[in-house]
């Protein structure tokens, strides 16, 4: 009986030690993301999906619009573009670095809405990647699909130019 108590105590101590080490390593891993998580998503890194964390320092994902900001822009009635993406979407991962220079060349600001973090964004789209133009608080037009070639890139250029 004493052996059982000793072995049980050792097992419990090992489990507790494992949990503590795991929490410490997770805290250290999140520490490198804290500043960017707060700047882009106004939250602690621990609250973000791991795929979102991987994009925090990526220059292609620096114009994030949060749901409250999105609603304010819609309520203002001004025209604006929103790029709905998911960090887990391979088409988005390929398209984003191609789409941002197109928006810059056309001279439009392209807000980025992360539907992995803010699922209410799915109310406006059926798939990612999708760019939506809003005007007077309403969705006026959209274009969706990954940029696979120059033809599709030109379609995005025309779309952004039309509503510029």
From TrEMBL:
Pfam families (UniProt xref): Thioredoxin
CDD domains in UniProt: TRX_family
Transmembrane segments: none
All residue ranges annotated as the Thioredoxin domain in the record: 68-152
Name of the protein this chain belongs to: Thioredoxin family protein
Domain of life: Bacteria
């Amino acid at each position: 009986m004493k052996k059982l108590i000793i072995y049980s105590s050792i097992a419990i101590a090992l489990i507790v030690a494992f949990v503590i080490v795991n929490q410490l390593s997770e805290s250290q891993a999140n520490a490198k993301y804290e500043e960017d998580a707060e700047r882009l998503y106004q939250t602690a890194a621990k609250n973000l999906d791991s795929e979102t964390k991987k994009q925090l320092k990526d220059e292609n994902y620096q114009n994030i619009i949060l749901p409250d900001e999105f609603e304010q822009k819609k309520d203002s009635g001004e025209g604006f573009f929103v790029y709905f993406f998911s960090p887990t979407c391979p088409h988005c991962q390929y398209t984003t670095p191609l789409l941002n220079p197109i928006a810059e060349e056309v001279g439009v600001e392209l807000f980025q809405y992360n539907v992995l973090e803010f699922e209410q964004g799915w109310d406006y789209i059926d798939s990612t990647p999708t760019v939506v133009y809003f005007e007077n608080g309403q969705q006026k037009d959209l274009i969706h699909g990954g940029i696979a070639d120059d033809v599709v890139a030109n379609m995005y250029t025309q779309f952004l130019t039309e509503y510029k």
